[in-house]
Every structure is written in structure tokens, then in C-alpha cells.
Amino acid sequence: METARMLLCAGRELARLMDDNLRRKGLSHAQIHVLGFLDENVKRGVRCNQREISRACGNTRAPSVTKLLQSLERRGLIARETGSDARVRYVSLTAEGKRLARECRAFMDRVEERIRAGFSEEQLEAFCRALGLAAKNLGEFAEEIKD
User: Domain range for residue 14?
Assistant: First the structure.
């Protein structure tokens, strides 16, 4: 029982940190996921269309992604344009969208650094393996107890 409680406490603290940071910026988890996805693709020189964003969001239904993109567009964080094929709409970050995406990435890097503080590389590798195994075990258990 102690392991589950400790994982729960750590997860809650991490979620609180992330939620507070996003709240200060007026963003949802889905919105920052899209901004981060677009920023990573910009760095690689790749243009993204709405279908690719939908896949990156876990194959969220098209109307949901459309609403999500509309909210980002209203805030001036993204721009949408039609390509040579009028059925395909490309999405790009505005300067403000890029700034917010990178601020959030920098915050995540700081969180990651804090989590790793005091661990040796060997300890971190073992910790990550243990967390991966715990996640796998929990996923299997969830499947077993489904109705």
C-alpha cells in the first residue's frame, strides 16, 4: 500500500505544479499539447495540418480539434491557412504562440531537473524502469477488472 500512496502523492504534486503553471498562462492541457506539438514541428521545419494535430491529440474527434484550434486562433496563438488543396488547412504558431509554448517547455525542463535532483544516473535509470513497470502493471490490472 505504501508504494501506491507514494505514487499518488507524487502524481498529485506534479499535476498541481503543471495545472498552476497552465492556469497562470490561461491554457488547458489540450491547448499546450497542441502548441508544443506545433513548436516541435516548427523546429524540424515541418508544416502541420489539422489531421496531424488530431492524431497527435490521440485521434480526438475532428469537431473537438476544430474547437480547440478556434480557441487558440482567437487568442492569437496560432494561424490557419489553406494549402494548394483547399481541403487541407495548415496550422502554424504565431510569435505569441511560440513564446508560450517555449515558456511552458522551459517550465517542464525545470520540473524535470527538480525531479532528478539528488539521483545518480544509475538511480534515475532504475527509477524510470520501475515507473514503467508500475504503469504496465496498473494498465494490465485495469484491463483485468473491466466489466
Answer: 2-116
Overall number of domains in the chain = 1
CATH number (domain holding residue 31) = 1.10.10.10
Task: Spell out the per-residue pLDDT of the chain, length 147, in tens.
Answer: 699 999 999 999 999 999 999 999 999 999 999 999 999 999 999 999 988 998 888 766 767 888 999 999 999 999 999 878 888 889 999 999 999 999 999 999 999 999 999 999 999 999 999 999 999 999 999 999 997
Taking a C-beta distance cutoff of 8 angstroms, is the pair 92, 78 a contact? yes
> How many CB atoms are closer than 10 A to CB 108?
15
Q: What is the DSSP string of 54-119?
A: HHHTTS--HHHHHHHHHHHHHTTSEEEEE-SSTT-EEEEE-HHHHHHHHHHHHHHHHHHHHHHTT-
